[in-house]
Specification:
Length: 202
């Protein structure tokens, strides 16, 4: 914990009335200067931080949010309440995640980008809700094989660059792709309640 961190203070929620709520933090996390992480707004739900995450200067995690393991929030990254940040996700400087949104595992948000929809795992977002492909460098650095990355690329194209309706593309993808990572991508998109970001090209 570096200078000026505020960890586990009351949630910024007008409905909160002072109930005893919790923030649960794993191991080997790093919180740099002036990071803020708020506890949950009800006793029934916690704010949860996993292990080995890196929160850079002035980043913020809102109440009831769940952060996985080995995620990075760069300077000024802001995560609203009730969000979910997956393992290995990277939020670049001043990236913004709207409340109740999910950012999937090993997804990357470019600097000053924002999501008000779910960002699927292994992808990159630029601007507002605009995906521009897979986080290929991050996947390679994480040790995923070329075969896994190639199948993910095909699954991405099948879901987001097809002329089919998404429900039809999902159904086809379930029958075509059998790898673990492709399965995670398909499941994430199918389970989205808010809808997912869409492909906008380079």
């Amino acid at each position: 914990f570096h200078t000026g961190c505020v960890i586990g203070d009351a949630p910024q929620d007008v409905k909160y009335k002072g109930e005893p709520t919790r923030l649960i933090i794993g191991e080997r996390n790093l919180f740099r200067e002036h990071v803020t992480v708020h506890r949950s707004n009800t006793p029934e739900e916690d704010t949860r931080i996993g292990s080995e995450n890196f929160f850079m200067v002035n980043s913020h995690v809102g109440h009831n949010t769940v952060v996985g393991n080995k995620a990075v929030l760069a300077n000024g990254a802001l995560v609203g309440g009730h969000a979910m940040i997956g393992d290995g996700a990277f939020l670049a400087g001043n990236a913004v995640v709207h409340q109740f949104c999910r950012v999937g595992a090993f997804a990357m948000m470019q600097g000053c980008s924002g999501v008000s929809l779910d960002l699927p795992p292994f992808t990159i977002v630029r601007g507002i809700n605009g995906m521009c492909g897979l986080n290929s460098v991050g996947l390679k650095r994480a040790g995923f094989s070329s075969e896994e990355r190639q199948e993910l690329k095909k699954a991405y194209h099948a879901l987001f660059l097809s002329d089919d309706l998404l429900k039809d593309a999902l159904e086809k993808a379930r029958g075509e792709f059998t790898g673990v990572l492709a399965g995670q991508l398909i499941h994430f998109v199918a389970a989205s309640q808010r809808g997912t970001c869409s492909h906008t090209g380079r």
